[in-house]
C-alpha cells in the first residue's frame, strides 16, 4: 500500500504541528516536502523531520511529480490561489481555514474544486475531528437529545496572547471571521440547518485598540436557524483562565455540553486557591488529537477514493455567515438571510 | 424585642412554604395569621402550624390590628390591589413577583408605596438572597472579575411539570414574564445597568400548545446594556434533567458561574449510567434557603427601620423589560429602549 | 402545642451556634435558658438572643422547673456527669460528642440513660443529619449500590487552624478520638456492622508538636468489618484548601461519593489559577443545616415520644473503636476486635 | 536517521494496539515483524498493517538480523525467557508487565539485563507515560504539594468484563499481582520510597469464584513507606461505571487528584438520569496516549543511547511488594518488610 506523499506549506505554529503530525502520527502518509519562504526555518525543520525536498517557492513544489497532495497552512490571503494552482497541478488539497478572505475568493475556490472532481479537497474545520465533538455529534444524529432547541458555542482566546492579537488586528477579519467561524461551522454541522436572522453585539471591554478596525475584543451573536434552532455564539480574546472552546446543545430530550470545563488534563489540584483544574493553554493543546485526525481523514479519503464530509461549499457558507455577523455587529441592525 | 407579626396570604406551593418558614425559620417574626379562599386548606394548615387567626377574606385580615405585615403569595392579578390595600391599612408588605401583570398596574403599586414612605415594601426576587448568588455578587462588586462583558442566565423548568404549565398557559404572561423576569432582575442587579436593545427568538420545540398564546416553550433574548455588557437570557420549559437555574458572568479579569451544574446535593453517583449528579427538582428545593433569607431580610428591615435593596421601581422596570422581550419575540423585530 | 423549653450549655463556637439555632431555626422549641461559666459572654449572648434565664452554674439551671431539656456543648470531660445529672433532674438530654472521654465514662452515661427510659437522650453525630449523607444513606439502605465493598471516609481540618489544634493537643484525645469518631460512626451507620480488625499508620508530617502526645497530624486506619466491608479512614489537620469531609461507599452495584469536592457553594471561578471551587471553611459552614436538623430531631423525638436513631450505645461503641485505632497507631500492631 | 526496526510479539488486545501504534504513531520506529502462535490472526494483522515479516516462532524472529528490538506482549509466563533470549540475540527489549510471574523469575531477568548493558530494556508501566500522571509527577517533584502524607490509588475493572476475569482466574496471580502492581509502581515512583509494612483485606463481594484461588474480587492494602508516607491501594473487578484508575496524593501543602472522575471524554450529558459523564471503558481507552508515549520513549532511548527511567529492578521490586500484599491478604497478618 503506497503512502500518500504530502508537501506541507507554511511553518508557523500550526504549520509546524501539521508537518510533525504528517511525519509521525498519520497512517498511510509521508511528509515528502516542506515549503516556507523562511529558508532558515525551512532547513532546520526539514533536517529535524528528515525531509529531503525543501522549497521556498510554492510553484516549484507543485512542479514536483513526487508529491500527491498539499497541506496549506499559509497566510489566509494566499489560500484561494494556492488551492486553485495545486488542484490544477493534479494535487489533492487540504487547506486551513478560511477558505478565502472574501466570499468572492471562496467562489473562486469552489470553481477550482468543481473543475477537478477527481481530486480530494478538504477544509481544516478541525473541531469536527475532536473526539468529544464527534461523540456528541453521533448522539445528536442518533436522536438522543431529541430536537435541538439552543446551540450555544464559545471561542475564547487567553488574555495572555492579547499582544499578538492586537498586532495582527489590522490584517484580521475580526472576531467573527477569525474565531466564530469554527462555531458557525459547528452550528451548521450539528443542526444541518442554516441561519435565517442574526443580531450581534459586543465591544472593546479591555482593549480599545480593536475599535480602530471596527472590531471588538469580545462579541456575540444570536441567530435563529431555519429549523427553528436558536444559536448563540460568543467570541472573546480576554479569557483570564486560558483557551476555552465550549459548546452546549440543548435538545427537547437531552442536553450535551462539550468541554464546559476546558481542563488541561485529568489532574485536579487542591490548594489555598480551592479545588481547581488548570485550563488548556491554546488551540494546539486543546485540539492536539483533532489536528491528527483531520489529516488522517484527508489521507484516508485520498487512499479510499472518498470525499470528505466537509466540502468547499461549507467553507463559502461559513464565510458568508461570518460576514453577515460582522455586518450585524458593525451596523447594530438585525440581519435577515 | 417584640416579634413582627405576619399575616401570610395564599397557600399554594410557595405560599405554604413561606408560611412554614415564617412559623419556624425566621428570627424575630411570628406567623400571626393565614389567609386563603380555600377554607379547608386554610384550616388544616393553620392547625398544623399553630395559627389561631384564619381569614378567607383578605380585607378582614387587613382589619386585624394584630398584624404588622403581610406576605402576599396570591394570584398575580391580585398583587397590585392587595399591595395598595395593605399599605393603606398600615401594614408592611412583602409581595411575590410579579409586582403587577401590566406595567400600568406596576405604576399603581409605585404610587401606593410612595404614599407610605414609613412602611417597608419588598418584592420577592429570591435569587438575590441565594447564598451562591450573593457570594458572586460580592465578588463582582469588589471588582474581582473586572468589567462585565457577558451576562448569561438560564431558567429552565423540568419537562415533567409541562402539563401544569400548559394548563396555566392561558393565564400566563408567557416565558419572559413568567420565568425570565428573575434573570432580568439579576442582570440589572449585577451590572447596575439597563438594556438598550433586545432581540428575542424561540418557539414551540416540543409543545405546540404554547403557540396559541403567542408563546414558546423555549425562548431566548440577546440584549446590550447601557454599560456595554452583553446579556443573553434563555428560558425553557422542557429541561429533561430537572430545575436548572444557572448564571455566568464573564468579566475582563475573571469569570463566575453560578450553579452551572444544578446539583441536588453533594452526592455523586457512579453506576451504569456513568458518573452523575442528580438535579434540583424545582424552585422550592433549589432556593430553599433563599426563600428563608428573603423573608428574614423583610423582617429585619421592619425591625431596623431600613428599606430593602430591591425597590418597587425594580419591579416595574423588570416588568417593562420583560414586556419588551415579549414584544421582540412576538414581532421578530429588534427592540430599542 | 406547647414548645419544648431548652437550656443550652456552653457558648463556644459550636455552643453559640446551637443556641442561635434553637432560638430561631428549630420548630417547636424555645431557647429558655443559657448556661456558661463566662458571665460576660453569657450576658451578651442572652441579651442578643432575648433569653431571660441565665446561669453560670449548671446545677442551678437544672433546678429550674422551667426547662424541659438541655443541650450540652460543654468541655468533653464534663459530658458524662452533666448527662447523668440532667437525666436525674428529669430533663431530656442532647449531648455533643464525645459521650465520654474514656470508655468507662461512656458506661456511666449508659447506666444513666438506662435508668431514665422515659427521657430522650441523643448524641450529636451531626453528619447523620446532613442532607447529602441522609440521601446517600437512603440509597444504600434501598439496596441501590448492592453490597458495600469499601467505605472510605476523610476528615480534614484546614492547616490555617493548626495553631489552635496544637494549643489544644495536650487536652485532646488525639486524631482518632477527636476527628475520626465521626467517620467511625458513619461506617457503623452505613454498614450496620462492626469492625473485626484495625491497622493504623500516620505521623507528624508538618507539625512535630503532636508527637509529644503520641499523636500525629495525619493518620489513617484500615479496618475490616464483620460483614466483610473494608473501611478506610483518614484524619488530617493540614488540609491546604479548607475543611474537607468526604465519604465514598463502593458497592457491588453502584458507588456513592459524598462531598468529594468540598465546595463552599455553587459558584465556580475561572481566573488565572484555572477553573476552581472555593472550599468550605470549617465544620460550622459545611454542616450548617445538619446542626439545625439534629436539634430538630431531638425536639421532635421529645414531642412525639420517640427515641432517636442514634443511641447511647453508639456513643460507647464509637469511643471503643476510636481507642482501638489509637492503640493500633501507637503500637504499630494489628488490632483484632 | 535510520528507523528502529521493531518485532512485536503477541497479538492479543494490547499486543494488537502496540503493533498498530508502532506502525503508525511512533516517530523513528518501524514495525518490521510480527509474531504470534495464531497463524490466521498473524496473517490478517500483518496484511492490514503492511508487515512482510511474520513469525509463528519467537526464536525464528529473533534470528532475523533485520530486527533491532522486540516488544513483548506475550503471556506473562513467557516474559522472562523471552527477555533473556532477545537480549542474548542482541535485541533491545520492551516487555509488558509483569517482569516475571515469580520473584525468582524476575531475578533471572535482572541477570539477563545486567549481562547486556549496551541494550535497552524497558518494562511497560504505562501509567508513568500518561500525560496526567506525568503532570502530577512534575508538580510533586517540584515540591508543589510539600511532603507526601497519603498516597491513595485505585484500579477498578468494569463488572462487565467479569466473565473474562473469572475464566482467567486460575492463571492469574490475583488482584495484587494483576492489578495493584501498577499502583505499587506509582507509589514507589511518586514517593521515591519503599514500603515498610502492609496490611491487606478484601474478599469476594459479588463473585465467590475467586475464593477458590485464594483471591478476592475486591481487595485493599494499607502500607507505610520508609519516608512515613501512608499508601492505600484498592483493586476491584466489579466497577459498575467502567474502568476507573484514580490516584490521590495528599501533601502538606497541596493535594493532587488524577482522574478522580474517570471521564471518557469532554462531553457532559444532562438527561433524566441527571448530569453525567460517561466513563472510560477499559485500559486501552484510558491509556491510549500513554501506550504510544511509552513505546516512543523506548525508541528514543535506543536512538539516543539512553536508559529508561523505569529499570528491571523496578519490575522485581514491584513484584516482591505485590507478593507481600498477597501474602498479607491470604494470611490476615501484618507484613513487615
Q: Could you explain the architecture of this structure?
A:
The structure is a homotetramer of 337-residue chains. Chain A has 337 residues and is an alpha/beta fold. Chain A has 2 domains: 4-119, NAD(P)-binding Rossmann-like Domain (Rossmann fold), CATH 3.40.50; 128-286 and 318-336, Dihydrodipicolinate Reductase, domain 2. Chain A is 38% helix and 28% strand. Chain A has 11 helices and 15 strands. Chain A has helices at 13-24, 39-49, 58-63, 79-88, 103-114, 131-141, 162-168, 175-191, 283-286, 288-304, 312-331, and strands spanning 4-9, 29-35, 53-55, 69-72, 92-95, 121-123, 148-158, 195-203, 218-225, 230-239, 244-251, 255-258, 263-271, 274-279, 335-336. In chain A, the strands form 3 sheets. In chain A, strands 12-11-7-10-9-8-15 form a 7-stranded mixed sheet, with helices on one face. In chain A, strands 3-2-1-4-5-6 form a 6-stranded parallel sheet, sandwiched between helices. In chain A, strand 2 (29-35), helix 2 and strand 3 form a beta-alpha-beta unit. In chain A, helix 4 (79-88) packs parallel to helix 5 (103-114), helix 5 runs antiparallel to helix 11 (312-331) and helix 8 (175-191) packs across helix 11. The longest helix of chain A is centred in the C-terminal third of the chain and has 20 residues, at 312-331. Strand 14 (274-279) of chain A pairs antiparallel with strand 14 of chain C, so a sheet runs across the interface.
Amino acid at each position: 500500500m503506497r503512502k500518500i506523499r504530502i508537501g506541507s506549506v507554511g511553518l508557523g505554529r500550526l504549520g509546524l504541528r501539521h508537518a510533525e503530525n504528517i511525519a509521525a502520527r498519520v497512517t498511510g502518509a509521508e511528509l515528502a516536502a516542506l515549503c516556507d519562504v523562511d529558508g532558515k526555518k525551512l532547513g532546520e525543520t526539514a533536517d529535524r523531520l528528515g525531509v529531503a525536498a525543501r522549497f521556498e517557492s510554492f510553484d516549484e513544489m507543485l512542479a514536483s511529480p513526487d508529491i500527491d497532495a498539499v497541506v496549506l497552512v499559509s497566510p489566509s490571503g494566499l489560500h484561494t490561489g494556492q488551492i486553485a494552482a495545486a488542484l490544477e497541478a493534479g494535487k489533492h488539497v487540504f487547506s486551513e481555514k478560511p477558505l478565502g478572505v472574501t466570499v468572492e475568493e471562496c467562489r473562486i475556490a469552489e470553481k477550482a474544486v468543481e473543475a477537478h472532481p477527481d481530486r480530494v479537497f478538504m477544509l481544516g474545520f478541525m473541531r469536527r475531528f475532536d473526539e468529544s465533538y464527534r461523540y456528541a455529534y453521533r448522539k445528536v444524529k442518533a436522536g438522543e437529545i431529541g430536537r435541538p432547541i439552543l446551540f450555544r458555542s464559545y471561542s475564547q482566546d487567553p488574555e495572555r496572547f492579547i499582544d499578538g492579537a492586537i498586532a495582527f488586528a489590522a490584517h484580521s477579519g475580526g472576531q467573527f471571521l477569525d474565531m466564530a467561524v469554527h462555531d458557525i461551522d459547528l452550528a451548521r454541522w450539528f443542526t444541518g440547518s442554516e441561519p435565517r436572522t442574526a443580531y450581534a453585539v459586543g465591544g472593546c471591554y479591555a482593549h480599545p485598540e480593536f475599535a480602530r478596525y471596527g472590531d471588538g475584543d469580545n462579541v456575540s451573536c444570536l441567530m435563529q436557524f431555519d429549523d427553528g434552532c436558536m444559536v448563540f455564539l460568543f467570541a472573546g480574546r480576554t479569557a483570564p483562565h486560558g483557551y476555552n472552546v465550549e459548546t452546549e446543545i440543548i435538545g427537547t430530550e437531552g442536553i450535551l455540553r462539550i468541554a464546559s470545563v476546558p481542563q488541561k488534563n485529568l489532574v485536579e489540584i487542591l490548594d489555598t486557591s480551592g479545588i481547581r483544574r488548570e485550563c488548556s493553554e491554546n488551540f494546539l493543546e486543546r485540539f492536539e488529537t483533532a489536528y491528527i485526525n483531520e489529516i488522517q481523514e484527508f489521507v484516508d479519503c485520498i487512499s479510499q477514493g472518498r470525499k470528505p464530509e466537509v466540502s468547499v461549499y461549507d467553507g463559502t457558507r461559513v464565510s458568508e455567515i461570518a460576514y453577515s455577523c460582522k455586518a450585524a455587529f458593525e451596523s447594530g441592525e438585525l440581519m435577515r438571510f
